[in-house]
Write a structure and sequence with these properties.
The protein has helices at 24-41, 58-71, 84-93, 126-138, 158-167, 174-180, 193-203, 232-241, 269-282, 296-303, 315-325, 348-362, 366-371, 391-401, 442-459, and strands at 3-6, 9-13, 47-52, 75-81, 98-102, 111-117, 152-154, 183-187, 208-212, 245-249, 256-259, 287-290, 308-311, 329-332, 336-338, 377-384, 407-408, 413-417, 420-426, 432-439. With 460 residues, the protein is of the alpha/beta class. The protein folds into three domains: 3-156, Alpha-D-Glucose-1,6-Bisphosphate, subunit A, domain 3 (Alpha-D-Glucose-1,6-Bisphosphate, Chain A, domain 3); 162-371, Alpha-D-Glucose-1,6-Bisphosphate, Chain A, domain 3, CATH 3.40.120; 377-459, Alpha-D-phosphohexomutase, C-terminal domain (TATA-Binding Protein), CATH 3.30.310.50. A hairpin with a 5-residue loop joins strand 19 (420-426) and strand 20. The radius of gyration is 22 Å and the shape is globular. Residues 8-137, 163-263, 270-374 form the Alpha-D-phosphohexomutase alpha/beta/alpha domain.
Length: 460
């Protein structure tokens, strides 16, 4: 059982003891801390937007969050079943002080989380998160008297506004997509993608859509992280249906990956590469991805004569770097697309619209498009952490072992081996060390990852 406090929010498993899991008491405590922090920032703006994915625990967490915010005197605008990017945009639509997304993103169904947004509809910074945790630790809250309790309203139009913004984005060509007459299979993983993705495709003029796992019950038909081993059903169905492509999203619809017409995977790392390639054709500027993402984005940026910049892992860090370098496109290799002049957040819906536009303009199949990019192979692994493991000590030992190699310590350890690399870091969302390695050869990437995993175990 776990409770994790990080730049990705307050995240934990459901059931168990307070302080060790995301218990009702913890939900109330951290919601109260967030509401108190917001009131300190903007005492005259008492509006907060909330929305949730389709998790089993979602409605329970939703009621606790609404009641806690109302008890602080904060007005709640509830999107109910929604997506992370929709809530982010709704904060701006509503001119709210902040927002809370109730989702544990790619984590299994026994997890949930509070993802916390500022008034820009962006994740709060590490510094603001530290302040919030101090408030939570002190239990220093002041609740409103009965005549000043917050109000509650439901917003049923936020997704429509989000989709409208996507289809009106200058680089999205609805007419070309409609003309392409695409047949698409969608894996909605029993969450709100079952609402958002078909609605977007309809607005884009796509009429032939098959939706898998469309019942929103939170009982995920497979592990919800859109990795190759979890997408066999989608791959098989694309092939069976003779569809042009398959689309997979995670439960809160901020991550995106594609399946080619032959049932093969486009590769989640290449979602950002393909979208960036299209954007950079029409808009010159910098691109950003986190340092656990494929080198292929750097290659594409070079082809377009533009600069590429790496960031630490985590959406907050990517957005910060994008703002620093005035990037026109960015994101993460896990299938997260950030289009800054739409909003500074990972958004599968704008990713789908831009990818389909590129596909329609190129006249290529999805497989042909994928083959136009350089081939790198990434080995993604993890080691679970037991209580008491000193990760800093582990990383110090590994750094010493590879001291003759180029090493970046901005976010864990990234070690270069000629044209290959490995990145070791603790997760923001799970009690694990992630080990990502990339090479032009699949066996080399796997071997580098295995070697470093053995180094980690020996250093524990």
């Amino acid at each position: 059982m776990s409770l994790i406090k990080s730049i990705s929010g307050i995240r934990g498993t459901i059931g168990g003891r307070p302080g060790e899991t995301l218990s009702p008491l913890d939900v109330v405590k951290f919601t109260a801390a967030y509401g108190t922090w917001l009131l300190q920032q903007q005492p005259d703006n008492k509006k907060v937007v909330i929305g949730r994915d389709g998790r089993i625990s979602g409605a329970l967490i939703q009621r606790l969050v609404i009641s806690t915010l109302n008890a602080l005197g904060i007005d709640v605008v509830d999107l109910d079943l929604s997506t992370t990017p929709t809530v982010e945009m709704a904060v701006k639509f509503e001119k709210a002080a902040g927002g809370i997304i109730l989702t544990a993103s790619h984590n299994p169904q026994d997890w949930n989380a509070l993802k916390l947004l500022n008034s820009e509809g962006e994740f709060i910074s590490a510094a603001d998160g530290a302040t919030l945790l101090e408030i939570a630790a002190s239990d220093n809250y002041t609740f409103a008297p009965v005549d000043k309790l917050g109000s509650y309203t439901v917003n049923t139009t936020a997704l429509d506004k989000h989709i409208e913004a996507v289809i009106n984005y200058p680089l999205v060509d609805v007419a070309a997509i409609k003309k392409g007459k695409f047949k698409i299979v969608v894996d909605a993983i029993n969450s709100t993608g079952a609402i958002a993705v078909p609605a977007l495709l309809k607005a884009l003029g796509v009429k032939d859509v098959v939706v898998l796992n469309e019942e929103i019950n939170g009982k995920f038909a497979h592990n919800p992280e859109p990795l190759p081993q979890h997408l066999t059903q989608l791959c098989n169905e694309v092939d069976k249906q003779q569809a042009h492509l398959g689309i997979a999203v995670d439960p809160d619809v901020d991550r995106l990956c594609f399946v080619c017409e032959d049932g093969s995977l486009f590769g989640e790392e290449y979602t950002l590469v393909a979208v960036a390639d299209y954007v950079l054709q029409h808009k010159k500027g910098a691109s950003v991805s986190n340092m656990s993402s494929t080198r292929a984005l750097q290659d594409v940026a070079k082809i377009h004569g533009t600069e590429y910049f790496p960031s630490a892992v985590g959406e907050v860090n990517v957005v910060t770097k994008m703002k620093q370098v005035h990037a026109v496109i960015g994101g993460e290799g896990n299938g997260g697309i950030i289009v800054p002049d739409l909003h500074y957040g990972r958004d599968a819906l704008i990713g789908i619209a831009l990818f389909l536009t590129q596909l329609a303009h190129s006249k290529k199949s999805v497989r042909q498009l994928r083959n136009s990019y350089p081939d790198y192979f990434m080995s993604k692994n993890k080691i679970e952490l037991e209580n008491g493991v000193d990760v800093n000590n582990v990383f110090t030992k590994i750094q010493d072992k590879y001291k003759n190699n180029p090493i970046n310590k901005e976010d864990g350890l990234k070690i270069e081996f000629d044209n290959d690399w490995v990145h070791l870091r603790t997760s923001n969302t799970e009690p694990i060390i992630r080990i990502y390695a990339e090479s032009s050869f699949e066996t080399t990437a796997d071997n580098i990852a295995r070697r470093l995993m053995q180094d980690i175990r020996e250093s524990m």
